[in-house]
Amino acid sequence: MSFTVTTPIYYVNGAPHLGHAYTTIAADVLARHHRQRGEDVFFLTGTDEHGEPVALAAEKLGVTPQELADTNAERFKALAPLLDASNDFFIRTTDPEHKAGVQAILQTVKDNGYVELGRYEGWYCPRCADFKNENEVEDGDKCAIHHIVLTRESEENWFFKLSAFQERLEALYAEQPEFVLPRERRNEALAFIEGGLQDVSLSRGAKLQWGVQVPWDPEHVFYVWFDAPIEYIGATEEWAEANGTTWRDWWRLDEGAANPENPVRYVQFMGKDNVAFHTVSFPATILGSGEPWKTVDTLKAFNWLNWYGGKFSTSQKRGVFMDQALEILPADYWRWHLTAYGPEGSDAAFTWEQFQSTTNKDLADVLGNFVNRILKFTETRFEGVVPAGGVDGHEGWLVHGADRVPVPRVSGGHVDFYAAVGRWILDGGPVPVDPEDAVRTAQVLEAAVVSAREGRVVRLD
Ligand SMILES: [Zn+2]
């Protein structure tokens, strides 16, 4: 099995905060898990740099969009190793390889008859970098997400004939029941498709020049939402070239990605607010290219990590930004907390109080005691040598549900495991095995040591 996992491709109008760290660490846990299983893994992260929000933020700061993108992309790139993320590659949408890839794929979509010139008239939110339907507008003229007054736009655009893909998208959702997770996000996307798809703007005209140039009309740039998702393909190409390997067997169904002996499984992580483009417009674009590109198997939408009930904000300096966070405590603390307590079923707020209490309880009390006890037990019962209890080959993983649902949740099970084994070693109860049984005792101790060392729970029969 070959496995690809991608973090959200982070937008560079602000600095990386804990929310970005959360999705990077989650993807890292999943990537490490699949490597432990012996699979070929390609783990990608990177930045999305075009579009109006970056252009506007740069203007405010008195720098060019490229300068702002360079500064912030560097911060995101530096963050991954500081978090101990094991990503294979970091891509930027301003890389020339990416631009060429976008132009080639979208040219094919046009050649196939799915692009035409039209005039867009309606509401536009510069913070979302998105046009708004009437049902996405509040108080008559405000963005329902940003609560700012929308601008009324009228401009000539290239349009993508999204309406031509309704049936094919419905078929895709029927064939892949786990195309989008969690289920409520899938239902939302499917309801949007079934509600009737309208053609959408593919380009921006004279008002915005910060983007990938439309090859057949150099006055226009592609709308950022069409440029960014193609990055996943371009990144694999750049990575493969740098490593003397091939990229087409990851992405082309006709060149290995669908090989029954070694199929590629592709999981994409993203914030829940970005789901619509990745689950509707992007798969339609790929269908429109008429080429056998591999599409995502499961897109996992993440709820928001907030800051004491509100959103993180670079401009308002609300939240914990990663340069501060890593000065306060090293990466392992953040990795633990975000993986075990990051928002799952709904949005959740980071608070220092919860961070302090869970870190003390889980790491100092449970894990610390666990390691202490197994070391002491090894000394007193086995003269300091870990017994070969025969746990090799016993599977059992710390990441729950990773086979079916790509949620790298580690809370619960292994803390219980550490606590139970720790208690058994300390006082003989609750007793998972008969302490008089020497073979079983050796097995459990070895399993405990392997668990502490490799970060996986060895499940004994
Ligand atoms: Zn908005």
Class based on secondary structure composition and strand pairing: alpha/beta
**Beta content:** 15-25%
**What is the CATH architecture term of the largest domain?**
3-Layer(aba) Sandwich
Which term fits the overall shape?
Answer: globular
Number of helices: 15
* Intertermini distance: 26 Å
Query: How many strands in all?
Result: 17
Written overview of the protein:
This protein has 461 residues and is of the alpha/beta class. Helix content is 44%, strand content 18%. It contains 15 helices and 17 strands. A six-stranded parallel beta sheet has the order 3-2-1-14-15-9, sandwiched between helices. A four-stranded antiparallel beta sheet has the order 5-4-8-10. Strands 11-13-12 form a three-stranded antiparallel beta sheet. A hairpin with a 2-residue loop joins strand 12 (213-214) and strand 13. The longest helix is centred in the last third of the chain and has 31 residues, at 352-382. Residues 397-412 and 428-432 have low confidence and may be disordered. Bound molecules: zinc ion. The site of zinc ion has 6 residues, from loops.
